[in-house]
Write a structure and sequence with these properties.
alpha+beta; Ubiquitin-like (UB roll); Creatine Kinase, Chain A, domain 2; 2 domains; eight-stranded mixed β-sheet; six-stranded mixed β-sheet; 14 strands; about 35% helix; about 20% strand; globular
Amino acid sequence: MDAKQMAEKWLAAHTDVQFVQAGFFDLNGQLRGKRMPLTNLAKVLDGGLRMPVSLAGVDIWGCDPEGSAMVFESGDGDGICQPTARGVLLNNITREPSAFVPLVLHNEDGSPFAGDPRQALAAVVDRYKARGLTVVVATELEFYLSDPKAEHPNSQITGEASDSFSMVAVDELDHFEPFFNDVYRLCAEQGVPADAAISENGSGQMEINLNHVPDPLCAADDAMLFKRIIRGVARKHGLVASFMAKPYGDRSGSGLHVHFSVLDNDGQNIFANGTPEGADTLGFAVAGLLRAMPDSMAIFAPHYNSYRRFAPQSHAPGAVAWGYENRTTAIRIPGGPDAARRIEHRVSGADANPYLVLAAILGAALAGLDAANKPAAPTVGDAYSQPLPQLPRQWDAAIEGFAQSTVMADIFAPVLRDMFVSAKRQESARFMAEVSAFERKTYRDTA
């Protein structure tokens, strides 16, 4: 079936759709693309849509980094936009139903554009495949719901402000039943495997787990689509959904936790050996993750606000450490059945790009498997109170650590590293140039 036939078949099954959206996710996880008439759907599915590859590396405000080689030096050329394996999705987060086609960037010669974050993850996944390994991944995403004019969301049942701080309270979820019903419906429509929902530590903070899948690209796609669904459904219900790492200084931050295991050609979990401690390969992967963690911080905490999340006793890890069933460490080895032996990586904020997060984690774990080094002893007890190596706590230090890292150079292509660092340096400079009202109030008459 050619692109025209696929478009005609899909539109015949979705006669209420009004327009087409198509785009790819840039390094900041922002969707860059176009809205088009329905007549363009066949062209999009046939790879006929073109957009500048420099769009992958714009800063958080959508501006080109000053002096970027991807813009003027290269002539700001277009790339070829190919649809992902997901094809056309029904998009009910718009006011009128629409079609949405997720895209991935290629060079003019058809090769993958290495500056596209999805292509970066695909390259890491290919390294696993070359070794006969399959990665099984699940993600957990936390977010805040609020009222557009207030910090606390109003209950959709009582209309009163929901300011409860009760952890994992089912009653809190019941107050937002219409919102969650629509979230699960739209997730089902787009093939996003939404699982359990819980209320988290902060007032209005929620978490929905996405089920594990044996394809990291699919898992990252799921996370990206999930964030769009959450925001879109919230708008339809008169709410605001935020994946900021720390939207409120006095409440818990929001994380993106990643669970993964690795299967061999026979479908056996290489982290499992019949014991709670796991196989040597589990330790090798952990050692690779610990080695790469400080240099990966700009990926896991990519924004100015990201670093507010890392506070003692906050369940956001501060140390380069691992442990069994220990949520104070950056890497937790959960208990459970031997077949489910896995690694939970707890560093990343919900504001990070899932493609880059998974590429950094899986690339580091694979390097650890290849090096076959044992990690330091697992941390027992409160990791916050122990003398352990610390993660970078300053944005600029994390950016420069990433820029100079040989470990990151082994995972990410030069074009992606250059684009990412240029965008982050520009964002940092702009934040440093802004003086807040709180600063002026504090220092104007005292400094």
